[in-house]
Structures are given as structure tokens and as C-alpha cells.
Amino acid sequence: MHDLRMIREQIDVLRDGMRRRGKLDSLAPFIDRAAEVDAERRTMIQAVEERKASRNAISQEVAKKKRAGENADDLLFQSRDLGEEISKLESELGELEAELQLNMLEIPNVTLEEVPAGGEEANRQIRSWGTPREAQSVKPHWEIGVSLGLVDFERGAKISGSGFIVFRGKGARLVRSLMNFMLDLHTTEHGYEEAWVPIVVNRASMTGTTQLPKFEDDMYAIRDEELFLIPTAEVPVTNLYANEILAAADLPKGMTAYTPCFRKEAGAHGKDTRGLIRVHEFDKVELVRYSTPESSSEQLELLTGHAEKVLQLLGLPYRVVLLAAGDTGFGSAKTYDLEVFAPGAGVWLEVSSCSVFSDFQARRAGIRYRPAEGGKPRFVHTLNGSGLAFPRIIAAILEHYQNADGSVTVPEVLRPYLGTDRLG
Hints:
Distance between the termini: 50 Å
Number of strands: 17
Low-confidence stretches: none
CATH architecture of the largest domain: 2-Layer Sandwich
CATH topology of the largest domain: BirA Bifunctional Protein, domain 2
Structural class: alpha+beta
CATH class of the largest domain: Alpha Beta
Order of helices and strands: HHHHEHEHEHEEHEHEEEHEEEHEEEHEHE
Shape: elongated
Oligomer: single chain
Strand order of the largest sheet: 1-10-11-12-15-9-8-4
Radius of gyration: 27 Å
């Protein structure tokens, strides 16, 4: 959420930020209404304070008259009328504050200056690693995975529906191996603290990390409860410190967690539906960092490097893409996508989005820190990224490491976890 000073003092900056995202026309009504409501709200706050001051002055005068044995009925009537007026104004003030909140929650973050303006076509490749395998004679992962008995699409659909997958035998062990490998790497080499968190969270947590109210249609809600299945471990891990004040000495701080993740993908019907590319339930190891505002850009590069290290150790060629403003997520100020090439499917697959949110999430969730030099607590900057998401990594492994005899070579780093060097 934006600081209200953006509405009051930097509204042109806010409008330009939405223009760079290509969304000014759709978001201008929310910006304009937020500015109007904020002005009305401040006027009403002043009116309430003035009336409270008048009521306090009358109360003092009533006390003075009573001590003198004088009649104060007229003043008591004035005080009562002021009290009723204050109650009415405070009720209207509450309605204005709720409306202001609703409008502010609809306005996405302003991207950083180095983020290109425009949509997906303006995304910029920053670097690449490795050489993608040629697609010739490579079967898509949905064929090789089934033929090796690693993936069961039909029974996943039977028991849960389209977009749900069953991993079997060594396929299931591969999932477990990826979890242990990534968690071991991030905790022992990258210095993250591991957490095992709930996969069911409340509305406040989902709002804090910007999934709500904007993307509620993409979320799995629990009927008759204000609870949701998480779309990513970003939600519970970031909210570990909601409404808390961290010490400056605790920053920067890194947390990692494995969780299953759940997304309806409500706006993606018919898109990338084959195999493991787009599913409703998937496993992921998440990286979350908290930092001071001064170091958050440096922390984004660090976090992105940690996610890249996973791909390097797996030996999967990838590219790093800086997303343009119009392709950047709602709450993000800057995002790098890591994309792996799947030669069998013939597509680049996003396996991680590494983002810095500035203080956008922290304002919603109330996450602050106390500066070492003293003074008022400040909002932290939050960052997160997948480190990594499993289904597309599995797809890339099955295609990149596929052999002519139909078997798949296991990446060397996974062999101690999987207990074999070959699938098939």
C-alpha cells in the first residue's frame, strides 16, 4: 500500500507510475477518488477535533459553575448536542476511512526507475547461463514422465480435477529430493533460516502480501471461513513479522520454507495446460528477505543469485529477464524472472520471480524496524523469490537430461538425495 503522502504530495509520480504500467486509464478513478476522500477525511478530522475542543471547554465551564453553585443546564444541553454531532461525524469519518482504504488497495506499486516502461514486449534479458539443448528428438516431459511411471496425470485428474498431478515411485522421490536439496542449499550455504509454516492463512495475511483483494478469484478459499490456501509461502513467511518492530541489527534477514502452493489460475484457461507447465497445486521452496530501504536493491541481486545457484547446480541453462513495468506484479517495484528452456515443449518456462516490494507490503502488514541511530520505527523493505518451483524444474530435467533410450540422467547434485543416477 502506498504512503498517503503519495496521494497528497506526489500524485503526479503515482499517475506516471501507473502510466508506465499501461494502466493509468483503469486506475485513475481509484487515484482521483482516493485523493478526494483523503481531503474530505482530513476536513472531517479537523471538524471532529474542533467540536471535541468545544465540548472540553464547556465541560470545564460546567464544573466551574457547579463549584460556584450556579445553574449549568444550558451548557449541559450544548455539550449533549456536541456529543451527538461528534458521534455522527465519527461515523461518517469511519465510512470515509473505509472507502479510502478500498481505493488505496486497488493501486499497484510504482516500479523503480530502472524498470522499463511498457508491457511484456519491453521485457529485457539481462544475462544467460548455459546452452539450451536442441529440441530435435526430445520428447515432451508429459510423454517421458508417463512412460517412466514418474507422473500420473489421469489419476490426478480423477481424484481432484484437471490441473492436479500425482507423482509416483521415483517421481515422488524426485519431488522430495528437490525439497531437501534446495532447503539444504539455502540454509547451509546462503544463510537462510528455515521455517515450516501453515498452508492455511487468514484474510489479513493475504491482504498484507497483496494477494487480496485484487486476486481473490485466483485463490482457493475455505467455505464459510475467512481462510485461504496459500498461493506461495511468501504469504505466511512474510507475515511472520506482521505488526512487529524488528531491531536494525536483525536486518537483513532471510527466511526459506517449503510448502505446497494452490492457485486457481482463473485467468489462464486454455493457456499452457499440457503436462506440468500450469497446475493448480504445486510444490515450491520460497526465499523471503527483509531489509532496510537503503540495502533492498543490493538484497534483490543477492536473492536472485541464490535462486540462480539452484539452476546452476542442477545444470539447467537459463536466462534472467528484467520485467517491464506492465508485466511486473501488482505489489512489486522490480522483478527478475528466471526462465529455463524446455526443449521438448519448445518453450522458456518461468521457474522463479525474484522481486523487491519496497515498503509496499510492509505498510499493509505493519512490518517495521527501529533504526540503529534511534528515532521513529521505519517500514522494512520486503523481497521474495522462488528458490525454486518444482513442476517446471521437473519438466526441464526430464527434457534436458533425456537420453536416446528413453531414460533420464539425474543431475549430479540430486543423486545423493534420489539414490540413483538414472530414471528409467
